[in-house]
Amino acid sequence: MVLGIYVLSFIAAFACMFFFPPGALALVLIGVLGLVVFRAGGAILGWAERRLSRRCLERGTCPLCEQEVISTAGEASRWECPGCRTKFSAVGSVVPLDEAADENP
């Protein structure tokens, strides 16, 4: 499906180069503006996910499996879920495995 969309876009842009050159430029500008819109949308979704995760963590439940989490005090407040073995940072995002492994050698 996605490959088909890219192939059709390529064919349209290629035809525009010869028959209507401003159309090819318009397709490039639409693509760049689309990238900006999707990056902004991704940032908004990430913010909303972290906010909802913080709410669950402050209630003492894991946002992934809804089991009770363990709060670890230190330089940065973090939470760990013993059920799904996921670690969360103070802002509510999931701590990547390589950072979690660095903490517990």
Tell me the span between the first and last alpha carbons.
45 Å
SS strand fraction: 5-15%
- Count the E strands: 3
Computed Rg: 22 Å
Helix content: 55-70%
Taking pLDDT < 50 over at least 5 consecutive residues as the criterion, the unreliable ranges are none
Mean pLDDT, all residues:
85
Please describe the biggest sheet, giving its number of strands, its sense, and whether it closes into a barrel.
3 strands, antiparallel
Structural class: mainly alpha
Summed up, the helix count is 3
Provide the domain count: 1
Following the backbone from N to C, one meets helices and strands in this order, namely HHEEEH
**Inertia-based shape:** elongated
Identify the strand order in the major beta sheet. Answer: 1-2-3
